[in-house]
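Project standup — Tuesday

K.O.: blocked on the structure for the chain from last sprint. Re-posting the sequence here as requested.
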Amino acid sequence: MQTYVALLYSITLGEGRRVVMSDLKAMAEGLGLKNVRTLVATGNLVFESGKTSIATLEKRLESAFEQAFGRHVDIIVRSAGDWLKLAASNPFPAESADAGDQVAVRVMRKAVAEDAISELRTRAAEDEKVHLVGGDIWVAFSRERPSSRLLAAANHKRLGVGTSRNWNTIRKLAEMVAT
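H.V.: unblocked you, prediction finished:
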């Protein structure tokens, strides 16, 4: 058995309707996934499965989610080893230690090319940073500004399927897969 992390793009089903983590866990268990755990109400799963391709796991989870909840949601899956590698590659360790909720990574289904990051950098405020590491986009957001132009610029249309998680979530998921 291998351990995996699954990240749901958005778990809002409509006005006033959210996915309850126990229902999400039950959906994953219904697929035969083992030792399924969630991280609070963040739309993240950690589970075990026989060795299979990431694409197959993503398709199975997306299909089951649509069947269970009536809406398609993109789901990004990474192996435990790849998740630990992602967490270890944080290019903003000082910023993460100071304010873990201000550092995020957009975990991509397909690696983003270096040239796609240049437009994001033009949208960054003077005190924001953007780095591409292993095809995923890391951002250190401004602590002074309540909103950022980077969020709108880092969307599916421009960069492909991906979903963002802050450093606090990344670290907690790494702890979950390491145990």
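K.O.: great, moving the ticket to review. DSSP finds eight helices and ten strands in the chain. The CA atoms of residues 54 and 77 lie 6 Å apart.
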